[in-house]
Amino acid sequence: MGTKHQSSSDSISDPKKRRRVGFSKTDAGIEANDCITIYIVSSAEDVDSPNSFCLEPIDLNQFFEDDGRIFGYQGLKITIWVNLISFHAYADISFESSSDGGRGITNVKSALQNIFAESLVDEKDAFLQTFSTESHYVRSVVSNAETLQHKVSNGCSTESNCLLKSEPSDVEVFRIAGTPVGHLYSRLVPLVLLLVDGSNPIDVLDPRWEIYLLVQERKDTQEDRLSRLLGFAAVYRFHRYPGSTRMRLGQILVMPPYQRKGYGRFLLEVLNRVAVSENVYDLTIEEPEDSLQYVRLCIDVERLLVFDPIQQSLESVVSHLKQENSLKKSYMCKYAPSLSAVEDVRKTLKINKKQFEQCWEILIYLGLAPINKYMEIYQAIVSHRVKAEVVGKDSEGAGKQVIDVPTEYDQQMSFVMFKSQNGESSSIETAANQSIVEEQLQKLVDKRMNQIKLIAEKVSAVHRQ
């Protein structure tokens, strides 16, 4: 038997028979934002319903490693339902195929458990049962809680000037403290992580945390009363020497289906009443978002408009401004609220100095009607305050100054802070940098002016009714 041998020269000369070597394409993954959808549901019938309340937009990439990308799946789709009655969750994970494309296979379930923890239910049938087995969860939580406020609501606070009407229901605010805080808050953590920007869970073992619950009582079809949590606020009490306490609002959230109906404002108003009735030193808010600060300013400006101890001082400032043709920098400070006014407001209304100063600007704006006639002078006051907050009390002499300095690391978040010596201007600040500073300051002034205008219009509309 013979074997046919092909010479090496023949195999090389024939291009069609050359061996080809290829490389598989590395898996690029898919962003969590592109494959995960979250729905909030209040009944078993809402699950899989096209009318379910969808949470969007939510940045889900932050909960996944590798810049929020999920690897190893083709046709991945994740649908999550959150029970708004018991706060359990269920995730339906489907995909066409799964394979390691060079970046491994992401453990999706583990990543979701980092968000939902023990609230994540494995089986869909078990999740659907929570709507009946846990239907009285909220009522059980507040059964031994302290009732702070009760009112019949039409879907919005009567003090919120809300135009949206709904079926009348009982709305109550409860306060819980101590051990029950941890039991409830552990179920609320996923919603806090998903819906409150930059928020971290509170330390439920610290007894100085209190949870304020906004609860709605409704009757179902069987005439059984059901309690729904519309929103909550987490407040921390800390000691102020020598014998007082301060209240600091750390987190506040109105559940998405109930937002823009005045409930958030109502909750803030209740906190104000608690601060006054319990005579704390003041009530502050930890890093409020713009939307929350807007509501807070509207509330406080309305309170200050009827606060008699500051009216004479306010009228005097407004009168002087109306008589001014131009405003010298040396006289800027006399338009700020007096120390006695600041203290009166803190003692009586529990509004801290920083908040009061922002309200004061709006009160002056309202007093200068028609504002267009005095806009140049008024804007000079606002500009001076913004500059003092950002650059320093005396930016043209000795003192701290902040200068934006572009770097390769981050073009928007890089800066230098320096202090001039002996009243001499620093050579660090070049003409180019000064121009950048002035441009950034003007943007802040424009933003502040727009906020003042919106709040003034809102408050004026309420008072005209």
Jot down its keywords.
single chain; 465 residues; alpha+beta; Histone Acetyltransferase, domain 1; Aminopeptidase; 3 domains; six-stranded mixed beta sheet; five-stranded mixed beta sheet; 14 helices; 17 strands; 38% helix; globular; disordered N terminus
Strand order of the largest sheet: 10-11-12-13-14-15
- Looking at CATH, the homologous superfamily of the largest domain is Gcn5-related N-acetyltransferase (GNAT)
Stated plainly, the CATH topology of the largest domain is called: Aminopeptidase
What is the percentage of strand-forming residues?
Answer: 15-25%
Count of the separate structural domains: 3
pLDDT averaged residue by residue: 84
Distance between the termini: 110 Å
* Biggest sheet features: 6 strands, mixed
Spatial shape:
globular
The parts where pLDDT drops under 50 for at least 5 residues are 1-9, 155-168, 394-398, 423-428
What's the β-strand tally?
A: 17
Identify the CATH architecture of the largest domain: 3-Layer(aba) Sandwich
Integer-rounded radius of gyration: 30 Å
CATH class assignment of the largest domain = Alpha Beta
Helix content: 25-40%
What's the number of helices?
14
From the helix content, strand content and strand pairing, which structural class follows? Answer: alpha+beta
Enzyme class: transferase
Biased composition (Polar residues): 1-12
Family: Belongs to the HAT1 family.
Domain Histone acetyl transferase HAT1 N-terminal: 30-197
